[in-house]
Amino acid sequence: MSERPIGIFDSGVGGLSILKAIQEHLPNENLLYFADSKFAPYGQLDEEILKQRCLYIAEFFAAQNAKAMVIACNTATALMAEWLRAEYDFPIIAIEPAIKPAAKLTKTKKIGVFATTHTLKSERYHSLKNRFAQDVTVFESDCPGFVEQVENGQLDTLETIALIEDNLQPMLADDIDTLVLGCTHYPFLRPAIKIVAGGKKLTIIDNADAVSLQLTRTLSDHQLLNFKSHQFDKFYSSSESENQQVIFQQLLSKDTEVQYINH
Ligand code: DGL
After folding, report:
1. DSSP per residue over 192-236, as a string?
2. What are 94-139's pLDDT values in tens digits?
3. Ligand 1, pocket residues at CB < 6 Å
């Protein structure tokens, strides 16, 4: 039972930032990762199509006897987490922007949030802000082009740096001291974000560790932790592009075989 895999998915390769944290926290677990890169970005995708994609991926994991699923995507969480939880019996762990820790950390009482359009507009996100960020000013950007840059492995090109400058400089001018990376693609841009921040003191946070801890607690509560040794991680992508394998290897810093799923 406990050797069954955990399914992890995202609109694309961004959720690999979550997979890496899960590998560190739970090295025994067998993982399945689905990058829905053919449909990326999810950030402004039609909601009905997004629902169909989430359903397809959850079924894909269920068919492989997954014991739990991680929505390694803030956008899919914001719009579909409750619905998916009602549909499936396996535990579903979701991710949301790290507003709560950011509101605690900030000294200037001003934080920045980088996230997708769907996430920033969602009820779930507004509720998060109302609960935890009442006494801080929140500056937001939906970061056009960021996801595409990561999907193409352009983590620190001049174009990427310019995009980050456009979105971060106004927030720095407004005196933010804490930046929330509210999309799982963005942690791969952290070195470039630091370059743009330059000498300015900026704490950059995401929820990858929080999700891994939540997953650990949930598996433990359901007596699903794997105490046997790790056997496999399997990687799938809905994108036919030959480049996928190269990008996976770049982001994971190791040889990775990616299977194309034509759906
Ligand atoms: N990585 C996803 C997120 O955390 C989705 C980004 C996108 O596809 O727009 O929101």
Report:
1. HHHHHHTTS--EEE-SHHHHHHHHHHHHHHTT----SPP--EEEE
2. 999 999 999 999 999 999 999 999 999 999 999 999 999 999 999 9
3. 10-12, 14, 40-43, 73-75, 116, 119, 147, 183-185
